[in-house]
Each structure stands twice: as C-alpha cells, then as structure tokens.
Amino acid sequence: MSDSVTTDIKIRVTGLRKSFGDNEVLKGIDVDIESGEVVCVIGPSGSGKSTFLRCLNKLEDITGGTVVVDGFDLTDQKVDIDKVRQHIGMVFQHFNLFPHMTALENVMLAPVQTKRATKAEARETGQRLLAQVGLAEKADAKPASLSGGQKQRVAIARALAMSPDIMLFDEATSALDPEMVGEVLQVLRDLAAQGMTMVVVTHEMGFAREVADRVIFMADGVIVEQGPPADLFGSPQHPRTQDFLAKVL
Length: 249
Ligand code: ADP
Ligand code: MG
Known about the structure:
GO molecular function: ATP binding; ATP hydrolysis activity; ATPase-coupled polar amino acid-transporter activity
CATH class: Alpha Beta
Protein name: ABC-type polar-amino-acid transporter
Number of helices: 9
Domain ABC transporter: 11-245
Oligomer: single chain
Strand order of the largest sheet: 6-7-8-3-9-10
Helix content: 25-40%
Number of strands: 10
Bound molecules: adenosine-5'-diphosphate, magnesium ion
EC number: 7.4.2.1
Low-confidence stretches: none
CATH topology: Rossmann fold
C-alpha cells in the first residue's frame, strides 16, 4: 500500500497535542492513515490511546496540531464537525445502546434523526446490517435480553448505519466475557476485508497481528514505534515496546 504513488490519505494527524489542565496526555502525534488501512493501536493503560482516538472525531478539544479527516481540518472552526462525524463510526468498550429500544430501533435511530433516511429505508438498512453482524433474528430483541457480544455487534451495526468510511474502535472487546470476544472480532475482520478504514485500540494482540496493516505502539503520549505487525511483534526495536510485549504476549 505504502509504495503506491496514488495513496489516498484518509486521516492526517500532525503534531497533535492534547492536555487536560496541565497534564499533557498527547505530546505530538504524527500519523497518516490511508484509505482502507487497518491500524491497531496498542500500549499501556494511560498512554493516551483513547484520547488519541477521540481526537480523530473531535470528541476532545485539540490543544495543538491538526487532525485532517477526508480533507477537513477538525481544528478549523469553520468546519462543520457534525458533517465530518457522520463519516466516522465509533464503537466503545461499553455499548451504550438505548435500553428501551429494540436492536433494530437502535440501528435505525441515527439515520432517521439526521434525516439521512426515511424510516422505511432505515429499517431496510438496519435489517441488512443486523444480518451482516449475524443478528438478523434479534432485530426485535431489547438490549437486556442480549449477551455482551450480541450487544456489541448491535453497536457496530448502529455505527455502520450512517455509512461511515472510517470506523474507530476503542477496546471494543475489553468488557466482554472471553467466549464472546471471537464473534465481535470476526465482525471487525469482515469489515477490514471489505476495505473499511479502521483505527482499532485493542488488547487483542492476536487480532492485531493477524488483521492490522500497521501496529502503533503508544506510551506516555507519543508513538514509540510503529510498523507492520510482523515487524513490531517479531522484532520490536525500542526497549519500551520490547518490555510491553514481553508482558502481554
Ligand atoms: P489509554 O486509553 O491509553 O488508557 P487515556 O487516553 O484514556 O489512555 O488517558 C490518558 C491520560 O489522560 C490518563 O492519565 C487519563 O487520566 C487522562 N485523561 C483522559 N481523559 C481525561 C479527562 N476527560 N480529563 C482529565 N484527564 C483525562
Ligand atoms: Mg483507553
């Protein structure tokens, strides 16, 4: 991918800094993410992975540097962030489904509310997406009757309902019982195979090794090292990466 002269940069992060008060959490992040690329972000707890991800759709105010998504500079006050966000789906550790709505209604909500689709269109798309994540038969189920893995798959379908061209995942499997991790990772694997641009913060090193085009190791608010999974996992160069991998692998 990287040797192509027609690379299509989807996300360009330049000198990104983020502070909470006087706590500088991101200390100058530079990264380009290409269309269709699957980037996994790994690193110790507190290293700034979630904050980095949240800066990519401006869920955090950006302290310094720029984040350009699909050509839109998120730090430019004139840019309509809601428009940009419609192209970016985000899935969190906790699913945040609306408990009083069925799975299908959860998936239909955003397209209808934003007037992207009529109810009938949203219903059709919703049913297709629930089928895509293996939950066609759960369309009318309320979240309380679903397992954690099923809830997370509904949350992914809900994010996909806005037809995003970028998907951000923040530890999407960390709250799941071990036996449910696989079914959610399979959905991510399918999305990757379909060419979705994905930034995946994960503790699933096996998944990162198998699916990522590139793995970024973050620590203390900087990118310490990055590369293809075979390189980063197989022959990490930096002592901090070596130390981290020794603990988690
Ligand atoms: P990670 O996802 O790698 O565990 P985070 O991005 O969640 O790391 O957090 C990085 C640092 O930023 C931590 O020290 C955390 O306490 C701090 N932090 C994150 N969000 C906030 C916030 N909303 N207010 C203040 N500090 C925050
Ligand atoms: Mg986090």
